Each structure stands twice: as structure tokens, then as C-alpha cells.
Amino acid sequence: MILKLDLVKRIKEFFDLNIYETKVWVALLSKGIASAGEVAEISGVPRSRTYDVLESLEKRGFAIMKIGKPVKYIAVKPTEVLEKIKLNTMHEAQEKVQSLVNLKDTQEYTELVALHNSGISPIKYTDLTGSIKGRSNILSRMRELLENAQKEVFICTSATDFEDKSRVLVPAVEKLSANNIKVKIALFGEPEYIKKLSIKHGLKIKSTDSTARLCMADKKEILFMVTPESSKEDMAVWLNSPFFTESLHNILEHTVSK
Length: 258
What we know:
- This protein has 258 residues and is of the alpha+beta class.
- The chain folds into two domains: 5-79, Winged helix-like DNA-binding domain superfamily/Winged helix DNA-binding domain (Arc Repressor Mutant, subunit A, Orthogonal Bundle), CATH 1.10.10.10; 125-253, Endonuclease Chain A (Endonuclease, Chain A).
- Helices cover 53% and strands 19% of the residues.
- A seven-stranded mixed sheet has the order 4-10-9-8-5-6-7, sandwiched between helices.
- Helix 1 (5-12) packs across helix 2 (19-31) and helix 2 packs across helix 3 (36-43).
- The longest helix has 26 residues, at 78-103.
């Protein structure tokens, strides 16, 4: 059997394997059960390396060593491997999240916050501006902006964009409301769709004629999208400017239906 090199290239990254591991696993899958020599012949991996690679695959759950002589290996089904990787990834992610949560209680974190506060305090409001690229970075900044709001929040975007970001926006808005922080949401789009979103999420949502996509906090801080929804890469501008933010807020208020 000739090993499908295009298949090797496509799945290598999916399973977090190096090129030798991928070739050996694919070769083993094609046989079901095979010796190191047979795997080496099919995969094209040097026989001297095949033993080490098979041992590595066994430790990672991609293969099982068959009891008996000569030594042979049994390929683990792709479905079982996928489930194992999913469980391991979830476990690693949970450990990482817990590690980050615990970081806030360390002296190192306290020192980092103190360094930031001492560095940011003499900076003028007009200097606190920046561009943010990428959906995840923008959502992260938006979440932080909402969590730090003290008095009021104003969200203006399209109905489809709001629904797309609802996983972040809805819990944040619910938390703000629970803390008696005023929240105003204005969406543009089909009126019926906006009404459905209002009912679905249990939020008071108003319609607007403005096509701006932004998030304001306390009329001081704003995250303003500068790319259209159809753009392949999201980009936003963040400003900590009370004068600009309040002025824009007053303008947009007139576009919101009562």
C-alpha cells in the first residue's frame, strides 16, 4: 500500500503529531495490526526510528502494544483517539483556567497591578487610545469595559452582530442590571428580528437608525468598530475620552426609538 502523503499533511496538525508520528499512525491504521518492520515499510519512516515513534504513539493513546512475540501494535480507532484528545484538551483548559484564577491571589499579580497603576496614573485621557484587531481580542476588551462600568452602559450594533456576541454580551448585561447599573441597548435591522431577540434574552432592546457598532461605559470609555460586519478581520478603536464619548452618546440618543 502506498501511503497517502496528502492525507498525512492534512491530519498532522489536527492531532498535534509530528510528521513521523502521523506517517506511522496512518500506516498502522491501514493494517490494523502490524509489526514495526511492516509499519516502516508502509510509512517510509526509517526502521530505527519506527520503534521510538510507535512507543510514543502508544503512550499518547494512538496505538496499543499487542502481547506476545513478535512485538506488534494495534491501531486505536480514530473515534477513540478523537474523544481522548477532546477530554485531555478540556482537562488541560480547566487546569489552565484554574491556574489563571489562582494567579490573582499571588504577590506577583499584585505587583503587576501596582506597576500598571503607577504607570497609567500620569497619562492623559487623550493618550489612552488604541486599535484592537481580531474578534477574540475585541470581545475580551468589550467584556472588560462592561465589567468595569460603574453607572451606565450603552450598546449600539446590528441585531445579527448582537446575537453573534450574545454569549459575552447577555451575561454581562444581566450582571450589570443586577448591580443596578443602567443599560441601554439599541439595535438596527429588521424590527421583527429585534423584537424576537428582546423576548429571547429577556432584555429591553430599542431600534435605532444608526448603523454604528459600539459599546460605551459611563460616557467615558468607548469601543468603536471600524470595520463592516462583512469584513474578514474585525478591527475596533478603543478610547478613554469622556468629552468624545459623551458627545457621541448625545448624538446617538436621538436616533433611538422611544
